[in-house]
């Protein structure tokens, strides 16, 4: 390997060293030296005095109105749920990063997508670094894609991948995964921060200059972040994450960044014997089927992207030891601590000596504060050992002062719940239909303005 071409640059002060050191020789910070190719756009001299070249010309400027704003052309992948998260389809020259736990279905989805594109006449190249060509072929047979014309390249060296891409110029190229690719220019191991960053930068540059749409598959660490640098997320145009419980068959693909479309749109899939199938009407998939209502369970109507979905929130409150635990799956733990404090202060519900566990069923992650009311009602229900009535739903944000705030697009949520046969709703006052306006058929709505009021309503329903 060409050792002399690389340089280690401190991410704190920009100081450099020809070899790796634990401590930066310039500023003394630890573990900040990251390998870079010498001569690449390293931040080496930038932060403390850019070195100007007298030969560099001045670039031409244009005003915004002079620049032609063309609509971005998108090619639909033919997989509706994937197109929905992408904002309509793949964009020529666009770079997409797709992350998710191992075994969740990244390779499956992308293989299905590139095959559909290939059948639609778009040349597709699938670069596999994790599996052999034979393994990819085996998967394609399993998916029923027996006559797939997708080209496969089993290669992990960046320079060879780029040379092949340059020679074949496919419309779309999948790199599965970016962590397996390495560049000759760096001495660091494949998967290291330096390698992942450098390889992604080269592939991005290639996408922009050639017009090939590039999809990078990225691994997720135990903490849930894309392994290697978060910097990848800044470099690419679109970031998609796979969510879901690998034990259940449903998978969500969520856009967390999209330069070409809306974020927080989700695609819903079911993993079947023959790959991932889109679920066009996902509103009821995250409900578990209880024959009779059980304590600690509340159905939340959440709004994911453009579609309302019903998700069961479960809570278990049980005697804890001297330092009781607060655990949440699919919901924010800090928010849970806050909601417990609000419950105590404003509704007189004390869980100080209790363990509190909350869970959003089905491995779905809920980030919107409109889940607050459902979480608090589930906790109280478990603490009291009293189930909520059959057909009960709730949503609404709860503030530190105990006020219940409206959720966006409340009417749509209520209509979806009514459509699925739910009959009792506790919701923020501002989300309830106004007096005199049309009622939602089959749904008895209890509007509330404060958390105490919500507790009273529930007690009256016992
Ligand atoms: P995979 O796409 O290999 O996951 P990733 O690339 O994210 O690591 O998905 C592997 C899982 O999906 C594996 O457990 C088998 C399952 N699977 C199916 O259930 N049906 C199928 O048709 C395929 C191809 C995979
Ligand atoms: Mg894979």
The parts where pLDDT drops under 50 for at least 5 residues are 42-49
Helix content: 10-25%
Tell the overall outline. Answer: globular
State the CATH class of the largest domain. Alpha Beta
Specify the biggest β-sheet: 9 strands, mixed
Overview of the molecule:
The protein is of the alpha/beta class and 462 residues long. The protein has 3 domains: 5-54, no CATH class; 74-280, Rossmann fold, CATH 3.40.50.300; 285-461, Ribosomal Protein S5, domain 2, CATH 3.30.230.10. It is 25% helix and 26% strand. The chain contains 10 helices and 23 strands. The chain has helices at 80-86, 106-119, 133-142, 158-168, 193-210, 231-235, 333-347, 372-384, 410-419, 451-461; strands at 6-10, 16-17, 33-37, 74-75, 90-91, 95-100, 124-128, 151-154, 172-176, 213-219, 238-243, 250-258, 266-272, 275-278, 297-304, 307-319, 326-329, 354-360, 392-394, 397-398, 404-405, 424-428, 444-448. The strands form 5 sheets. The protein has a 9-stranded mixed beta sheet with strand order 8-7-9-10-6-11-12-13-14. A 7-stranded mixed beta sheet has the order 17-18-16-15-19-22-23. Strands 2-1-3 form a 3-stranded antiparallel beta sheet. A hairpin with a 2-residue loop joins strand 13 and strand 14 (275-278). The longest helix has 18 residues, at 193-210. The protein is globular, with a radius of gyration of 26 Å. The N and C termini lie far apart (73 Å). 40% of the residues are buried. The model is unreliable at 42-49 (pLDDT under 50). Magnesium ion (MG) binds at residues 106-107, 130, 176.
């Amino acid at each position: 390997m060409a050792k002399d071409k690389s340089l280690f640059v401190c991410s704190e002060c920009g100081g450099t060293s020809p070899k790796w050191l634990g401590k930066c020789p310039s500023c003394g910070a630890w573990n900040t030296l990251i390998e870079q190719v010498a001569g690449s756009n390293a931040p080496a001299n930038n932060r403390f005095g850019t070195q100007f070249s007298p030969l560099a010309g001045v670039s031409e400027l244009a005003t915004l109105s002079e620049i032609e704003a063309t609509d971005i052309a998108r090619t639909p992948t033919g997989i509706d749920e994937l197109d929905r998260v992408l904002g309509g389809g793949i964009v020529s020259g666009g770079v997409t990063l797709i992350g998710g736990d191992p075994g969740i279905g990244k390779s499956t989805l992308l293989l299905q997508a590139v095959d559909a594109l290939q059948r639609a006449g778009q040349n597709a190249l699938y670069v596999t670094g994790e599996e052999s060509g034979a393994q990819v072929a085996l998967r394609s047979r399993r998916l029923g894609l027996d006559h797939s014309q997708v080209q496969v390249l089993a290669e992990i060296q960046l320079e060879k991948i780029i040379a092949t891409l340059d020679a074949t110029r496919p419309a779309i190229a999948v790199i599965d995964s970016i962590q397996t690719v390495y560049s000759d220019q760096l001495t660091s191991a494949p998967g290291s921060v330096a390698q992942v960053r450098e390889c992604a930068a080269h592939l991005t540059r290639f996408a922009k200059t050639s017009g090939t749409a590039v999809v990078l598959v990225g691994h997720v660490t135990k903490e849930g972040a894309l392994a290697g640098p978060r910097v990848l997320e800044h470099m690419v145009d679109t970031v998609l994450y796979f969510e879901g419980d690998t034990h259940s068959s449903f998978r969500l693909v969520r856009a967390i960044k999209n330069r070409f479309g809306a974020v927080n749109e989700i695609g819903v899939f079911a993993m079947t014997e023959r790959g991932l199938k889109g679920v066009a009407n996902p509103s009821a998939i995250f409900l578990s089927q209880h024959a009779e209502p059980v304590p600690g369970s509340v159905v939340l109507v959440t709004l994911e992207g453009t579609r309302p979905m019903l998700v069961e929130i479960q809570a278990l409150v049980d005697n804890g030891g001297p330092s009781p635990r607060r655990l949440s799956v699919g919901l924010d733990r800090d928010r849970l601590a806050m909601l417990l404090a609000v419950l105590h202060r404003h509704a007189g519900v004390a869980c100080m000596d209790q363990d509190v566990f909350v869970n959003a069923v089905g491995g779905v992650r809920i980030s919107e504060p409109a889940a607050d009311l459902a979480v608090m009602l589930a906790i109280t229900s478990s603490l009291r050992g009293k189930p909520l009535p059959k057909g009960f739903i709730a949503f609404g944000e709860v503030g530190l002062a105990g006020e219940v705030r409206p959720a966006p697009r409340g009417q749509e949520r209520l209509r979806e719940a009514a459509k699925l046969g739910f009959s009792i709703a506790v919701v923020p006052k501002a989300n309830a239909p106004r007096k005199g306006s049309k009622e939602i058929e089959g749904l008895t709505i209890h509007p509330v303005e404060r958390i105490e009021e919500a507790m009273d309503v529930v007690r009256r329903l016992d």
